[in-house]
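Fill in residues.
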């Protein structure tokens, strides 16, 4: 399948940056390196309000993914520390903005702070598609006041939307079988491409466990 990809390079000159005319900026923003990285499996989340965005222990790859609305497997190039070094982010808009404006402001901040150059292209790659089973998906909507919650391991209670489920599966499918059954295996590769093709919207709540389909290159959830 041919899918969109984002090629990343790190410029050494501010003159090489490409910022859209009139791009909005944060009123105040801070991106600081974290001295003790948490590691890929224990990173914080990027949290937003209408007037702020904050994140703790996230990689530049995480921030690029949020700002450009792409998944980790769609990123190519960049420095070796793109997904190893971690940062704390705190930024204020000064007034309420939409989610898309917040992402655009973060794009401008990352281009300025890290001297990013990005190029969109498409690439041929093998991907998984998250689809509903025959007869539909017997999913229960999450309670109206519920917040997103994603299990750290391959099983547990999942509470979020289908896009987050696709991301969760992408990470879980990259975890190799444990060499020592008494110790959990850790993802050591880029997430496996998983595309949300369910057509479902909203937050759902259900128990999750990945099960390989015998004789097929597929998994059931």
């Amino acid at each position: 399948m041919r899918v969109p990809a984002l090629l990343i390079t790190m410029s050494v000159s501010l003159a090489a940056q490409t910022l859209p005319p009139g791009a909005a900026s944060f009123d105040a923003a801070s991106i600081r390196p974290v001295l003790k990285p948490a590691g890929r499996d224990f990173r914080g989340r990027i949290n937003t309000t209408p007037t702020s965005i904050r994140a703790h222990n996230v990689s530049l790859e995480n921030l690029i993914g949020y700002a450009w609305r792409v998944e980790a497997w769609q990123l190519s190039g960049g420095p070796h520390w793109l997904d190893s070094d971690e940062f704390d982010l705190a930024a204020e808009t000064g007034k309420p903005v939409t989610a898309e404006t917040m992402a655009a402001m973060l794009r401008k901040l990352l281009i300025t702070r890290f001297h990013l150059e990005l190029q969109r292209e498409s690439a041929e790659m093998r991907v998984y598609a998250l689809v509903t089973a025959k007869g539909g998906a017997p999913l229960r909507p999450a309670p109206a006041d519920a917040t997103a919650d994603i299990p750290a391991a391959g099983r547990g209670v999942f509470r979020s939307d289908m896009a987050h489920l696709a991301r969760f599966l992408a990470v879980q499918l990259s975890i190799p079988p444990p060499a020592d059954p008494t110790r959990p295996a850790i993802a050591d590769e880029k997430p496996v491409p998983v595309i949300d093709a369910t057509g479902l919207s909203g937050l759902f709540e259900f128990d999750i466990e990945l099960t390989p389909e015998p004789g097929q290159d597929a998994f059931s959830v």
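The first strand starts at residue 2 and ends at 10.
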